[in-house]
Amino acid sequence: LSPGEPVDLDNCAREPIHVPGSIQPRGVLLAVSEPDLVVVQASENLAGLTGVVWSDALGRPLADVLGVAQTEAVVRSASAFGDLRERNPVEVTLDVDGDPVPVDAILHRAVLDGARDEHGQPEDGAPPLTNLVVELEPARGPRPFSFPNTYQAVRGTVAELNRASTLEELYDITARAIRALTGFDRVMVYRYDADHNGEVVAEAKAADLNSFLGLHYPASDIPAQARALYEKNWIRLISDVDYVPSRIQPAAHPATGRPLDLTLSTLRSVSPIHVEYLRNMGVRASMSISLLQDDRLWGLIACHHYSGPHQPPYATRAAAEFLGSTLSLRLVDRTAEDEVHRALQVRSTLAWLTAATLDEDRPLADTLLGTTSLLDVLPADGVAVCLQGSSGTKGAELPADVLERVVAWAAASGEDVVATDALQREAPGLGVPVEVACGVLVLPLPEGQYVLWHRREAVRHVDWGGDPHNKAIAEREGDDVRLSPRKSFDRWRETVRERSHPWTPQERAEVLQLRSHLLEALYARSRSIVRAAE
Ligand code: BLA
User: Distance (Å, rounded) from C-alpha 128 to C-alpha 120?
Assistant: First the structure.
């Protein structure tokens, strides 16, 4: 941040976390040109795992760094059909000063965005240039890594997920299975709301830890660019928050003049702000797995370790990622099932009411407020209608003067559906007491006719993991202004008042259908009145 720049949470979202220029030092990174396999960039810690100093590796064939046989193994995977990442990890044994070191090679291709030709011009129309990125992590866990072991570990969980009948069961099964698989001290399923605030909806943890279940966290804890990155790369591990980043050299990629894009990398160094956040929380190692619904981030599986660094082997992380995507698929199914079930019920109510309105001897208001009524279309505390000169209510009643003012306010908007769950805030001039109604949904109809549903205040307590208003603390250090995450994560209870249960987009859509049925019924009746008079 430059001096004088206002400090707000947008600054957080502007940090380009996909190009940090460094990696976490649990492994080493090489960017290699294709097809000639010459090392273009390397992390400074290269020698620690390969015995070759990074500056000696630049410009040399990959085989000079890894050995011929190891490079062949990498090339075989890199040239195989399909998504490169599906073949990870490539198991190789490096010869480091005469000692065999088992290593997981993790491969992906990085797009060299903004690559230039030899005249320094952007290469328009050419396919995007890529580099093969080879990340090497010392292997942990059983070697050789066996597919059957991992398959057995996740197979049972997938079967359990398929049997689960409620969302809560799905969340719980996942949290328990990921903890059993990875050994983290705490595993949480973290679900976003529409504004990207999140809630811990399931938790599996060591017995001596306090619980985070039910706690809410503000959207700014995971800024927008991080969410976008997590939609592309579904898993990330910070194995030790006390790590010292290892820089990638040269800092600017020769083909682009920019740092290497680490979007799909596994060793990507993470935002220092987030590292500070984890330290403030007392977390030593963190891992998270994206949960997606229709390609959008729905939430995360968030894992913490407290007692020390924690580094599940790559294959275990891949299995955990697989469970995450299985949960994602089941979430879509389940949610769709629930929505379809509800929608069918409402549709049959609408069909019944529409048929009933055909009985022209009965006033419309009576039909709509009978045993099957408008409250079955849209749940509310009460509903009031005024149609063809007859009016009536069902459920709780609004005082006549309030009803009149709210209907006039809704009609003045010119909208087909007027809905609010915060009437006092949105229309303070109406002077409707909170005890009477906080939410209204009105269908204004021609000639002063209307249908109006109302809901009372629903006081809600939200337990936040720390006061969300202190989500960022701006600190001045000389001329510099620095944003930092909050220091306390103690439970902070917010009481939300002057709000009713919200009217959902689905409910609004259903009410619009009802509106067109009503207009038809009104039209048909007005015509038969005209016919009768003739
Ligand atoms: C990233 N923040 C994250 C991540 C999580 C959270 C899970 C993903 C990285 C990881 O797996 O650790 C937040 N972690 C949580 C929450 C819980 C948890 C809510 O365990 C609840 C139990 N963070 C701030 C502020 C900023 C910020 C004020 O609090 C910005 C100024 C930034 N968070 C931030 C950034 C990242 C992040 C930049 C991306 C880190 C990266 O991937 O490089």
Answer: 15
